[in-house]
Design a protein that fits this description.
The chain has about 110 residues and is α+β, with helices and mostly antiparallel strands. The protein has one domain: 2-Layer Sandwich (Alpha-Beta Plaits). Helices cover about 40% and strands about 30% of the residues. It contains three helices and four strands; from the N terminus they run βαββααβ. The longest helix is centred in the N-terminal third of the chain and has 17 residues.
Length: about 110
C-alpha cells in the first residue's frame, strides 16, 4: 500500500475554490479506485498550504486510477475548474509507505 500526499500551494484569496475542488474530489476519487483519506485546507498558520491524502495499492494501480479519473465526468470538470480559476499555484506529489505499525491516534491516552 502506498499513500500519496499532495501538497498544494494555493492562492489564499481563493480558499473557497479550493473547498469546492476538494468536495468534488471527495466524490470522484473513491469512485475511481483510490482510498481517499481527505483534503485539508489552511486553518491556522500558513494560509497557502493545503493537502490531499489518499491510498493506492501500487504505482501500477495509481496509473490506472489516474486514467480512470481523467475520464470521469466530474474529474474532467474539476481539472477544468482548477485551470479556469487558477487557485492552485503549485502541486507536489509524494508517495510514501507506512513505516510504523498501524495504530489508533486516540487510545485513551488523552483522557
Amino acid at each position: 500500500m502506498l499513500t500519496c500526499f499532495i501538497r498544494y500551494h494555493i492562492d489564499p484569496t481563493k480558499k473557497e475554490q479550493f473547498f469546492q475542488y476538494s468536495k468534488n474530489w471527495g466524490e470522484a476519487i473513491p469512485r475511481n479506485g483510490a482510498d481517499l483519506v481527505g483534503y485539508f485546507a489552511p486553518h491556522e498558520g500558513s494560509s497557502t498550504l493545503a493537502y490531499g491524502v489518499y491510498h493506492v495499492e501500487s504505482l501500477k494501480a495509481y496509473e490506472e486510477y489516474r486514467a480512470s479519473l481523467a475520464a470521469d465526468p466530474l474529474g474532467k470538470e474539476n481539472y477544468e475548474f482548477a485551470q479556469k480559476e487558477k487557485f492552485l499555484l503549485r502541486e507536489d506529489r509524494t508517495f510514501l509507505k507506512l513505516a510504523s505499525s498501524p495504530h489508533s491516534a486516540f487510545r485513551g491516552q488523552f483522557t
